[in-house]
Design goal:
Radius of gyration: 15 Å
Number of domains: 2
Order of helices and strands: EEEHEHHEHHEHH
Shape: globular
Distance between the termini: 42 Å
Number of strands: 6
CATH superfamily of the largest domain: Winged helix-like DNA-binding domain superfamily/Winged helix DNA-binding domain
Helix content: 25-40%
Number of helices: 7
CATH topology of the largest domain: Arc Repressor Mutant, subunit A
CATH class of the largest domain: Mainly Alpha
Largest sheet: 4 strands, mixed
Length: about 170
């Protein structure tokens, strides 16, 4: 069972979900393909979704509160990715992008040892179901531009501003 509950952030509403003892979902309510994420979770975890909080979603909400208050830079909640082996490799790569820093899709592909897989890396990044915790917002275009983001470009800009990246780098 995936237990889900809403979370209101300063840059948009999210849905948090736990499966067992891990966070498996932190997705934007206003998102391009929310049904695709829900379907993937149901299929790969072989679980239904039910509204109801858990210790994990409550801890995720607490850590998000600290993050948005500028008091947390690193999350320490267990994550449960649900995707293909390739997608999970990309999502784990996102965890290596430090707070306040960005990388391009090409740089991320290089870091993962797949320099020719830029488009596939970008697609996997876009399919990330655990936004903010697996910081897909820290991946930008090769020219530093803010490219597509599940929560919208304004949410991405907000998160990068919060982390001090945009103000430091003048973008």
């Amino acid at each position: 069972m995936v237990l889900i509950e809403p979370y209101s952030s300063p840059c948009g509403d999210l849905v948090l979900g736990s499966f067992g003892e891990a966070l498996c979902l932190c997705n934007w309510v206003e998102e391009k393909h929310p049904l695709r994420v829900n379907h993937r979770l149901r299929t790969l975890l072989d679980a239904d979704m039910r509204v109801g909080g858990s210790d994990i979603t409550r801890e995720a909400a607490r850590q998000l509160d600290e993050y948005f208050q500028g008091r947390r830079r690193v999350f320490d909640i267990p994550l449960r990715f649900a995707g293909t082996a390739f997608q999970e490799t990309v999502w784990r790569g996102l965890l290596e992008i430090s707070y306040g820093h960005t990388v391009s899709y090409g740089e991320l592909a290089e870091r993962l040892g797949m320099p020719k897989a830029v488009r596939a890396v970008a697609n996997a990044n876009g399919a990330n179901a655990i936004s903010i915790f697996a910081p897909c917002h820290r991946v930008v275009g090769s020219d530093g531009s803010l490219t597509g983001y599940g929560g919208g470009i304004e949410a991405k800009k907000f998160l990068l501003d919060l982390e001090g990246h945009l103000s430091r780098n003048g973008k």
